[in-house]
Amino acid sequence: MFECSKQGSVFVLSGNDPLSRDHTVELAGHCEKCFGHGQPKIVFDLRNIPLLDSAGLEFLLDLRDRCLQHGGAIHLAALNPLCTEILQATELDRDFAISDDVVSAVGSFSR
Questions:
Q1: Residues 70, 45: contact at Cβ < 8 Å?
Q2: Whole-number Å distance between alpha carbons of 24 and 42
Q3: Mean pLDDT split into 10-residue runs, the chain, 111 residues
Q4: pLDDT at 25
């Protein structure tokens, strides 16, 4: 299950299901909330995400591109060891701002 909350002007996406093809439709619905308010600022909290598969990685890249097209950005936060390993193995860790925790990621938008 995924949810979207807001901390100031930053949307925080979180969940505890795998970021996989089976869950990207649900997540896409939550993401729509982020694009109706000017430049989207999104933090994706990966702390409880047990797995990222190829569809999940593609989803993150598409979300990043959509944010950039609207003048915004996405930051990843609180990556668990497996998600860190997957992003490093695919070299996608270079394509995202990554923070140790959600508070740091949200705060990075005010710098």
A1: no
A2: 16
A3: 93 94 88 84 96 95 95 96 95 96 95 72
A4: 87
Q: What is the largest CA-CA distance in the chain?
A: 36
Residues 6+ apart with CB under 8 A from 78: 45, 46, 47, 99, 100, 101, 102
Give, in order, the Cα–Cα distances in Å from 44 to each of 3, 24, 63, 85.
Answer: 10, 13, 10, 17
Non-local CB neighbours of 7 within 8 Å, separated by 6+ positions: 43, 102, 106
| pTM for the full predicted model | 0.93
Listing DSSP states for 44-68 in one string gives EE-TT---B-HHHHHHHHHHHHHHH
Give, in order, the Cα–Cα distances in Å from 92 to each of 9, 35, 84, 87.
Answer: 26, 23, 10, 5
Q: What is the pLDDT of residue 37?
A: 72
